[in-house]
Amino acid sequence: MGFVIGRGADAATEQAGHVGRYRALDGSQGTKLYLDLDGPHATLIVGKRGYGKSFTMGVVAEELARAAGVTPVVIDPMGVFSTLAEPADGEAVPVEVVDEPAVSADVLGPRSWCSLLGLSAETGAGALVWEAAQQHPTLADMRRHVEQSDAPDTDRRSAVNHIDLADTWGVFDPDGLDASTLASTEITVVDVSGLDSAPMNAVCRGIAEALYRARVDDRIDRLPWLLIDEAHTFFDGIAEDALHTVLTRGRAPGVSLVLATQRPSAVSEIAISQSDVLVSHRLTAGADLEALNAAQPTYMNDSFDERLPTDPGEVVVIDDATETIHAAQIRARDTPHGGGSPSARELADHE
Ligand SMILES: Nc1ncnc2c1ncn2[C@@H]1O[C@H](COP(=O)(O)OP(=O)(O)OP(=O)(O)O)[C@@H](O)[C@H]1O
């Protein structure tokens, strides 16, 4: 027995992930806390650096990897989730790590192509890229379209150079990740840590759109959960539109999102207002507290900052479905945690 976030007290714990225990004032361990993995949720995990966001996301990932009927995908900008594939304590955690992710070029519309390449659609080169992206599904076809156009030489050269730049990122491939490859029983860890912000955003957008569309068109029969670490990076780029779609329209087709960020003030207001589960570690920055205070639910009587925990792994959970607030300690990882800051002392001990 315990509390299931998203369901309530004394709810059955089937299709729910064990994420921690209640935190008692005297430090003793309380009853178990679970997260509902049955229905769709938008979950926001926040906290200042080093207080356990990635660790908590890893715990949610372990539970999702073991759950039935879901297809979890982690977008991993820091390269810390491949450790999910290492031997686990207890039940196995089935994982597939994708080291060199690619998506199909046509997941981006003409507007996104222009902003990805930093071209205004009002310029000659921007207009060419717009037209090429509108008419062709691959980078090679887009390039050919530009070369064969009768636009001025300088515009064609500039457009081709920009398309070639996108090609060097190595993230566009007609056979890239799609919903059917992602919709496996394992959790897929998409390691985007070697990529710059623009290609990283392109991959994230491609995956978010592929999962969303596949559910809308009824092409996959598992419910997708998209977990995104360092989520502020993607609200700053071309992934934002796709994430907004999932946040505002994902519930009906059953697409869930779990976002982790140390800067809640840098994700969009939509991400905060649409989240039905907020997991907050310690936070101290004024702008971040303000962003969360502004969205504070009416059933929360004290101000948000008064509730905040002090130590790594401690959280306050606001569950909008049951309109309840919980002080909890996130459980230990069953697989090694890949994050954390390196310590000079620990390195010296191994010399
Ligand atoms: N639930 C927990 N139980 C035990 N230790 C924890 C827990 N959560 C975090 N820690 C400890 O805190 C450290 C920092 O956690 P983590 O790497 O998840 O921080 P973070 O908030 O994601 O930081 P960053 O912003 O740098 O990614 C971990 O290496 C671990 O030692």
Tell me the domain tally: 2
- Rg from Cα: 22 Å
So, the CATH homologous superfamily of the largest domain? P-loop containing nucleotide triphosphate hydrolases
Strand order of the largest sheet: 2-1-4-3-13-12-11-5-10-9-6-8-7
Q: Ligands bound here?
A: adenosine-5'-triphosphate
Succession of helices and strands: EEEEEHEEHHHHHEHEHHEHEHHEEH
DSSP strand count: 13
CATH structural architecture of the largest domain: 3-Layer(aba) Sandwich
Q: Into which percent range does the helicity of residues fall?
A: 25-40%
Strand percentage: 15-25%
Mass-distribution shape: elongated
N-to-C span = 47 Å
The largest sheet, given as strand count, sense and whether it forms a barrel, is: 13 strands, mixed
CATH class of the largest domain: Alpha Beta
> What's the rounded overall pLDDT mean?
90
